[in-house]
Amino acid sequence: MSPTLRTISREQHLAYIRSLPSASHMQVPAWGDLKSEWRSESLGWFDGDDKLIGVGLVLYRQLPKVKRYLAYLPEGPVINWFAPNLEEWLRPMLAHLKQQGAFSVKMGPPVVIRRWNAKAIKAGIQDPEVKRLRDVEATQLEPRAFEVADRLRRMGWQQGEDGGAGFGDVQPRYVFQIPLRDRSLEEVHKDFNQLWRRNIKKAEKAGVVVERGDYEDLEEWQRLYEITAERDRFRPRPLSYFQLMWRALNAETASPVEENRMRLYIARHEGEAVAAATMLVVGGHVWYSYGASANHKREVRPSNAMQWQMLRDAHAMGAHVYDMRGIGDILDESDHLFGLIQFKVGTGGEAAEYLGEWDFPLNKLLHKALDIYMSRR
């Protein structure tokens, strides 16, 4: 039987997310509170017995001067993507979004298509013939993911040409993850390369202390984050964004049985904050979300010490994956993102390629206009 779709309450949405092993942090109701320029809505899919079997957080962004919206489901919706009747799940969603005034729909199926272990990536880096991650033979393939992509194309969903570059989508298509399920901390540490293990030891010997921060420590975080933004030439988010993130996400996990949805870690050397990072938690999935560091005292390796502490805490809470988020797919030392993959691959984890983001133009003229506008930004 085809599932039916209707709007649901925050409470229904959150209860469903809590019933799952994990879901993206961008598909919890509180994520909509964080995106203040967008209007948010919770959608629910129901089976024939009126049981909730899927949810989606939709963010609506209004076009200037007209009451038409881009509807965006970041890393969602949270549905059975391998259902043989996938079209019957997505068709009512498109009809509903069109009714709400959407001219275009963007979604990011949380479906992994390929994985590469650290050994395969290192071999690819050393091979002069290999230019991109996709040139390296995957150590794991998900055949059903290719079927999902075929079904989406047949339905009329479109994928941007630049999706394969790793950062062509709004959310990263390629991420780096450290599997924790059924692994001891000793096994995780053993998979670190020699440099990582040496740097963790160096930080310990130098007296680097990693501690959990609180809401009041976000100002200290912001100082380091703005130093990082200037050094790496990106535009930083304001302190108010992280304060709202903390309040919104942690209000959602106020029950004593749940870990805070958002955590802050600060690495100190001789009492001075020299590195900091934010962590997000949904079920068994833990993300290293944002990172920052000072321009000095890098020789005491505070970032390695901090990552190791975050990993240990993730393991202690029973997480099945520690997600270090986005990487580029170019394996060339001259590429500006190469250092990122090199740093992360040292942990001995694996790269994962998601299906990427897909668009459905409900109004082709407005969708095209948006495409032109985004390409000029």
Automatic annotation (TrEMBL):
Pfam families: FemAB (PF02388). Keywords: Acyltransferase, Cell shape, Cell wall biogenesis/degradation, Peptidoglycan synthesis, Transferase. SUPFAM superfamilies: Acyl-CoA N-acyltransferases (Nat). GO terms for molecular function: aminoacyltransferase activity. This is Peptidoglycan bridge formation glycyltransferase FemA/FemB family protein. Gene3D superfamilies: 3.40.630.30. One of its GO terms (biological process) is peptidoglycan biosynthetic process. It comes from Streptomyces alkaliphilus. InterPro entries: Acyl_CoA_acyltransferase, FEMABX, PG_Glycine_Bridge_Synth. PANTHER family: LIPID II:GLYCINE GLYCYLTRANSFERASE (PTHR36174). Belongs to the FemABX family.
